[in-house]
Amino acid sequence: MLFQKKTRAAALAALAVSVALVATGCAAGDSGSGGGEGDGGNLSITFLPKNLGNPYFDTSNAGGEEAIEEFDGTFAEVGPAEATPDGQVSYINTLTQQGVGAIAISANDPKAICDALNEARDAGVKVVTFDSDTNTDCRDVFVNQADAEGIAKVQVDLIAEQIGDAGEIAILSASANATNQNAWIELMKEQLAADHPGIELVEVVYGDDDDQTSFDKTAALLQTHPNLKGIVSPTTVGIAAAARYLQTSEYQGKVALTGLGTPNQMREYVEDGTVTAFALWNPADLGYLAAYASKALIEGDITGAEGDTFDAGKLGEYTVGADGVVLLGDPFVFDAENIGEFDF
Ligand code: RAM
Questions:
Q1: Which of 60, 70, 204, 238 could form a disulfide with 233 if both were Cys (CB 3.0 to 4.6 A apart)?
Q2: Is 278 within 8 Å of 158 (Cβ atoms)?
Q3: Domain spans, the chain
Q4: Residues whose CB falls within 8 Å of the CB of residue 15, separated by 6 or more in sequence, listed in order
Q5: Atom of ligand 1 nearest to the CA of 54
Q6: How far apart (Å, rounded) are the C-alpha atoms in residues 66 and 89?
Q7: Residue to probe by mutation, ligand 1, list 51, 61, 131, 206, most atoms within 8 Å of CB
Q8: How confident is the model at residue 15 (pLDDT cuts 50, 70, 90)?
Q9: Is the pLDDT of residue 309 over 80?
Q10: What is the 56 CA–ligand 1 centroid distance (Å)?
Q11: pLDDT tens digits for 210-225?
Q12: Minimum CA distance residue for ligand 1 atom 2
């Protein structure tokens, strides 16, 4: 299968513990980092997701808020209705004028928001990307949910397993410029070419992380490619919309669907057999870690240099890796056996 039993069990336990902590509102107490009150840092931290109204970002923002409450900072969340870089730029500019301590942002474009972010940094605002990165010179740290090769591989393995390693597949992505999805798609293409000669990727379409657009793109894919055997959707918005389409269509159970989804959005589709298995990480932990990375930057505990270490509350100590990347952990596979254990 995809994970060694031990890895899978350990990941399950880690997810379950952190989900339980979030659910009970249990705080981890003082960070023990020696920072915090008295340092005079501006712990006003604003989360700026790709767009609002996406349960994935609701969960990551809630994790950020939990962390910021723990260290007595000020949490805020702003964001555009649509997942576009332009929409993010105006919020970045406003936050710069307001003089927040840090912006934690999931980037809709690796370059287009860079000038605005660098103006913010020139004005003393720390910039943490999480979930979807910018170019490395426009932020201080990137909090990465899992290593990109691993995220690509778990999805390639799942679709290969679900279609018997042969036939046509398509990808239903988020917005066309999303840094994270584009990196994963490139790696999926490489892995398919290297290890799965029987699988043909016939098309990549973009649902813009909009539910209706993703639903319509799913319908179009199935019409255009009558021999399609599977769809990979590396976005929680896309996979949920595609599952909803498949559920009441003639393709349910015939065309496989996998990718990255949240358990709460995917539960009914796993329970009725529309979807067999999909992957993700814990978005609450991702937001929580981004908040602690912001705090560490604001207080000068880290600069984003490789080897810097910081305390991340209940998640423990983290080390900044090459290119200012902080890695949360491994992706995790959800299926009918374990989905009941998760609530996010
Ligand atoms: C959507 C967004 C997000 C991505 C997840 C998997 O919610 O595109 O950036 O990480 O899917």
A1: 238
A2: yes
A3: 19-146+282-328, 148-280
A4: 282, 332, 342
A5: 7
A6: 26
A7: 131
A8: low
A9: yes
A10: 7
A11: 999 999 999 999 999 9
A12: 235
Instruction: Locate the ligand 1 atom nearest the alpha carbon of residue 209 and give its number.
Output: 8
Q: What is the pLDDT of residues 143-200, one digit of tens each?
A: 999 999 999 999 999 999 999 999 999 999 999 999 999 999 999 999 999 999 999 9
Q: Indicate which residue's Cα is closest to atom 4 of ligand 1.
A: 235
| Ligand 1 centroid from CA 195, angstroms | 26
Q: How many A from CA of 47 to the centre of ligand 1?
A: 15
Residue nearest (by alpha carbon) to ligand 1 atom 8: 235
CA angle, residues 176, 321, 194, in degrees to nearest 5: 50
The position carrying tokens 């336990």 is 13
In the predicted model, what is the mean pLDDT of residues 301-311? 98
Q: Is the dihedral of CA 59, 64, 67, 71 positive or negative?
A: negative
For residue 163, give the amino acid letter.
I
Token pair in block for residue 324: 């200012």
Q: Yes or no: say if 39 and 70 are a contact pair by the CB < 8 Å rule.
A: no
Chain centroid to CA 205: how far? 19
Same fold across 19-146+282-328 and 148-280: yes
Please give the structure tokens belonging to residue 236.
Answer: 């929680």
Report whether pLDDT(78) > 70. Answer: yes
Q: How many angstroms separate the CA atoms of 32 and 30, rounded?
A: 5
pLDDT (tens digit, 9 = 90+) per residue, 223-247? 999 999 999 999 999 999 999 999 9
3-class DSSP string for 9-25: HHHHHHHHHHHHHHHHC
CATH assignment, 148-280 = 3.40.50.2300
CATH of 19-146+282-328, one of 3.40.250.10, 3.40.50.300, 3.40.50.2300, 1.10.1130.10: 3.40.50.2300
For ligand 1, atom 7, the nearest C-alpha belongs to 236
260 lines ligand 1 (CB under 6 A): yes
Instruction: For ligand 1, say whether the CB of 281 is within 6 Å of any of its atoms.
Output: no
Can you tell me the mean pLDDT for 113-140? 98
